[in-house]
Amino acid sequence: MTQFSWKGVMPAVTTKFTHEDKLDMEMFTVNINAQLEAGVSGIILGGTLGEASTLDDDEKQILIEHTVGLVDGKVPVVMNIAEQSTKKAIMAAEKAEKYGAKGLMMLPPMRYKSTDYETMAYFKAVAQNTSLPIMIYNNPVDYKIEVTLDMFDELLENDNIQAVKESTRDITNITRIRNRFGERLKILCGVDTLAMESLLMGSDGWVAGLVCAFPKETVAIYQLVKEGRIEEATAIYRWFMPLLELDINPQLVQNIKLAEVATGIGTENVRLPRLPLQGKERDRVLSIIDHGVKTRPQIPIF
């Protein structure tokens, strides 16, 4: 099984498209290089932010292979698995491994609200058909299925289920997980607006969204917290919060892509049925981004 370090800042990167709705690998490369330069610990492909539900298998292959070549072993590439059937999830995991991914992030079954028993069977089936380490994405708010601590008790019998992307919005869950599983289950915060609080309570890492546009600031918060430099981290976090709130919104993809445009490492192109923001909402988001860019903090040395 692949050795994996579930820690640090792991961007759930956006997928870049051209005006002709093809993959924009040139701008994608610009963004990944900015992430690497900032010191991220991994790259996560094909999440919600990556517009995974609109990508075909060939595009996923291109994205994984290109990213693996680009990172050149510096950080692991993680592929998200979000499928409707167990069979397709197993196939997606096999393909991700074949194309060079070093880890998987896994959502429960899509569309069908599975029972606890069915959810565990789904995760176990994939875990037993791949050698890749797995991070379970636990987001009952958006996906209506909670992976409880009792469920993790059973899931952790599979050695390659190693981490949780903790998105329950309940900070106390971090302490419960730590008390129950110690270091056996690594914890990565999955909610941008709770990231610093999660890190202070012992999260190992942060699966981040606004990092796509602001990589240096995101990594700085993580590093400063881990070094115990809480005041400095708090100052950056307070500046960041209006921007981070753009992530907890149904139009998070459009919001974050607009922010990437403002920082020069992305384009606004989204794939249908998504459309770029319009009218008052566009003005509102642009004003938040504009203020954020104009007041970007000085990053201390860490």
TrEMBL record:
Record InterPro entries: Aldolase_TIM, DapA-like
Keyword Zinc: no
Annotated positions binding pyruvate: 207
Gene3D superfamilies (UniProt xref): Aldolase class I (3.20.20.70)
Cited CDD domains: DHDPS-like (cd00408)
Top-rank taxon: Bacteria
Assigned protein family: Belongs to the DapA family.
Protein's name in the database: Dihydrodipicolinate synthase family protein
